[in-house]
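Why do we care about 3D structure at all? Because function follows from shape, and shape follows, mostly, from sequence. That is the central idea of this module. The next example makes it concrete: a single protein chain, its amino acid sequence, and then its structure expressed as tokens.
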Amino acid sequence: MARGRHHRSRSRARWLVPVLLLLVTTTSGVPARAATTGPASVAVSTALAQVGLPYEWGGNGPAAGDLGFDCSGLTRFAYAAAGISLPRTAHLQYYAGPGVPSGAPLLAGDLLFYGVPSNVHHVGLYLGDGTMVNASDVGTPVQVAHYRWPGDDYLGATRPAAPPGTPGLLPPVPALPKVAQIAVPQLFLAPPV
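And the structure:
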């Protein structure tokens, strides 16, 4: 038993140091756009503390009696720790806004969404330098991954930690009804960092 805990501890240390360095600087040594204070910082820290937990469809984490998280359970849990309430599903989180305009710089703590407006099926939490923390699929634990890759269906981002009326952000809009789907498992595999 002690050997297993030590192994997990070493394993966690292997990803923790690079992730912490990533939040402090970019690969060029220039400070990244990482949140250092406030609710976004709390959400990022909380989400990173869940790395390695298993993916669980509908999972809200160990505090809720689940083994792990699904994507929207992770982001909801992270922002709840920061005192910000989010809806339960990725689809509704996308429409809760406020939206980050297309092409605007992302900030650590922004939520990143995948799908189409009528079927938002995945969310991750932006860390900086092109990476996110997310719970992507069965068999893949909560992990740090690149948020863009060839062929992805990236939809856009929101900034839940922004104070109301923050200039340059798009106001929340009513959610489009989610399109009914055939019960086919949907694989979402973000390439690991």
